[in-house]
C-alpha cells in the first residue's frame, strides 16, 4: 500500500538503496539537490541523519529561509511491511515566481525498479490531501513537455492543463474534498 512517510533514519537502509538506484540522475522531490554538489547524498547512517534533519527543518515555516526559497515538506513514498522507500515527494507550501511559472507545488520521483506500479499516482493523490491541509485549494503540478509518465500521473489525479512555459506543462488540481 503506497504511503507517504516523513523522512526518518529508521528507513536509512531502504532510503540509501533507493537514492543509489538513481545513479547520477536528478532525484526529483528528494531534496538531494539541496546538498552541496546538488546530486550526491552521503548514504551512510550519519549522512542520512544529517539529511533528515535538514529536510525536516525546511518544512518548519518558523525557520528563516533565503529569499528564493519557500517552506517545503518532504515525504518518502513507501510501500510494504516493513516499509520500503519506493520514491520521493516534495510539497512546497506556496509558490514563488519560479515555482508559479515552472516548478509547481509538488515534485516527485519513483525509484526505477518500482515504476509502473501506480506508486506515483497514489502518492500524488495523498499529497493533494496534505496540500489541502496546508490550505492550498488549487495545487500547481508541472512536468517536462516530453515526460509522458509524469503527465499521465498528473492527469489521472484530475490535473487541468493550463499551458506550457519554458518546456514545462502546467496543470492545476483542486485539492479540496467535495
Ligand atoms: C514520472 C514517474 C514518477 C511515474 O512514476 P510511476 O510510479 O511509474 O507512475 P504510475 O505507475 O503511477 O503511472 C502513472 C501513469 O503513467 C503511465 N506510465 C508510467 N510509466 C510510463 C512510461 N514509461 N511510458 C508511458 N506511460 C507510462 C502509467 O501507465 C500511468 O498511466 P495510466 O494511468 O494511464 O495507466 C516516474 O517515471 C519517475 O520517477 N520518473 C523520473 C522522475 C520524474 O520524471 N519525476 C517527475 C518530475 S515532474
Tell me about this structure.
The chain is of the alpha+beta class. The protein is globular, with a radius of gyration of 15 Å. The chain contains five helices and seven strands; from the N terminus they run βααββαβαβαββ. It has one domain (3-174): Gcn5-related N-acetyltransferase (GNAT) (Aminopeptidase). The strands form two sheets. The protein has a four-stranded antiparallel β-sheet. The protein has a three-stranded antiparallel β-sheet with strand order 5-7-6, with helices on both faces.
Summarize the structure.
This protein has helices at residues 12-21, 45-58, 97-103, 119-133, 148-155; strands spanning 3-5, 72-79, 84-92, 106-110, 138-144, 160-165, 168-174. It has one domain (3-174): Gcn5-related N-acetyltransferase (GNAT) (Aminopeptidase, 3-Layer(aba) Sandwich), CATH 3.40.630.30. With 178 residues, the protein is α+β, with helices and mostly antiparallel strands.
Largest sheet: spatial strand order: 1-2-3-4
CATH architecture: 3-Layer(aba) Sandwich
Into how many domains do the coordinates divide?
1
> Strand-and-helix sequence, N→C?
EHHEEHEHEHEE
Strand fraction: 25-35%
Estimate the global geometry from the Cα principal axes. globular
What is the CATH C level class, in words? Alpha Beta
Spatial separation of the terminal alpha carbons: 24 Å
What structural class do you assign from the helix and strand content? alpha+beta
* Low-pLDDT residue intervals, each spanning 5 or more residues: none
Please report the total strand number as a whole number: 7
What is the mean pLDDT? 94
Amino acid at each position: 500500500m503506497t504511503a507517504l512517510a516523513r523522512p526518518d533514519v529508521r528507513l536509512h537502509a531502504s532510503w540509501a538503496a533507493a537514492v543509489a538506484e538513481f545513479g547520477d540522475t536528478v532525484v526529483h522531490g528528494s531534496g538531494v539537490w539541496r546538498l552541496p554538489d546538488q546530486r550526491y547524498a552521503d548514504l551512510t547512517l550519519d549522512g542520512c541523519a544529517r539529511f533528515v534533519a535538514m529536510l525536516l527543518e525546511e518544512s518548519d515555516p518558523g525557520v528563516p529561509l533565503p529569499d528564493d526559497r519557500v517552506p517545503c515538506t518532504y515525504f518518502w513514498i513507501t510501500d510494504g511491511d516493513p516499509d520500503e522507500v519506493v520514491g520521493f515527494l516534495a510539497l512546497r507550501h506556496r509558490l514563488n515566481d519560479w515555482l508559479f511559472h515552472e516548478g509547481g507545488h509538488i515534485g516527485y520521483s519513483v525509484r526505477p525498479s518500482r515504476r509502473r506500479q501506480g506508486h506515483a499516482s497514489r502518492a500524488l493523490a495523498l499529497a493533494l490531501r496534505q496540500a489541502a491541509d496546508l490550505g492550498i485549494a488549487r495545487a500547481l503540478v508541472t512536468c517536462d513537455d516530453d515526460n509522458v509518465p509524469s503527465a499521465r500521473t498528473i492527469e489521472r489525479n484530475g490535473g487541468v492543463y493550463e499551458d506550457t512555459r519554458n518546456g514545462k506543462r502546467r496543470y492545476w488540481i483542486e485539492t479540496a474534498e467535495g
